[in-house]
Design a protein that fits this description.
By secondary structure, this protein is α+β, with helices and mostly antiparallel strands. It is built from seven helices and six strands, in the order αβββααααββααβ. The chain has helices at 2-34, 96-108, 110-113, 126-129, 135-144, 166-169, 172-183; strands spanning 39-40, 85-88, 91-94, 146-150, 155-159, 193-194. The termini are far apart. Residues 60-70 have a biased composition (Acidic residues).
Length: 195
């Protein structure tokens, strides 16, 4: 997996986005021919985790998680939302969780999911996707990855598992806060300043 991610990163540097898209398409086609499942979290069948962080695969039938519960530092607003954002014109200020989430998103996620979480030609919009996910489901997908079949192209798209990346997993609540603020349209596509 590490070799594949490095290869995708290298292709992006050398060939730009078109090279990355071609590599992703090739990888997705290989995955489609090797697996007949239509949708499942990558690594969900593993009972042991090689790292210290263990996160169970998200249960799609679960009740929505308390969005503010895992957001101990940076806090949300008093309505239970994981974010506290105030905007005027094109300038926004936000709580620490949202600002950190923005920074971590742009360090780890924007290459595939776009600079503002609205998706790309090879990864879905997280702004739209969070309308249907609770925080527990989101955390499970980030930790364990996800494989999704696209019936229009006949290929699979595969999000890698991030459970072995401590920078991602220790900030998954902050990623949720940032993306939830974007999904709820509380934060436009701007860099938020800290409150």
């Amino acid at each position: 997996m590490t070799r594949r991610l490095f290869s995708l990163f290298f292709l992006t540097l050398v060939l730009g986005t078109a090279g990355l898209q071609a590599a992703c398409s090739e990888s997705q086609s290989k995955t489609a021919s090797n697996d007949s499942a239509t949708e499942e979290p990558a690594g969900a069948d593993e009972s042991q985790d090689s790292g210290n962080t263990q996160v169970a695969a998200a249960d799609t039938e679960s009740e929505p998680a308390d969005d503010a519960a895992s957001n101990d530092d940076g806090g949300g607003d008093t309505s239970g939302k994981p974010y506290d954002v105030s905007c005027d014109d094109d300038h926004c200020v936000a709580n620490e969780a949202v600002v950190t989430g923005y920074e971590k998103y742009h360090a780890h996620c924007h290459t595939c999911h776009g600079p503002n979480g609205v998706g790309s030609t090879f990864a879905p919009s997280l702004v739209d996707r969070l309308e249907d996910l609770n925080q527990g489901e989101f955390t499970g997908i980030v930790a364990n990855g996800k494989k999704r079949f696209d019936s229009t192209t006949g290929t699979y798209s595969v999000m890698p598992a991030w459970k072995d990346n401590p920078d991602v997993m220790s900030n998954v609540g902050q990623l949720w806060a940032y993306l939830k603020a974007r999904s709820d349209e509380a934060l436009p596509a701007v860099h938020p300043d800290p409150k």
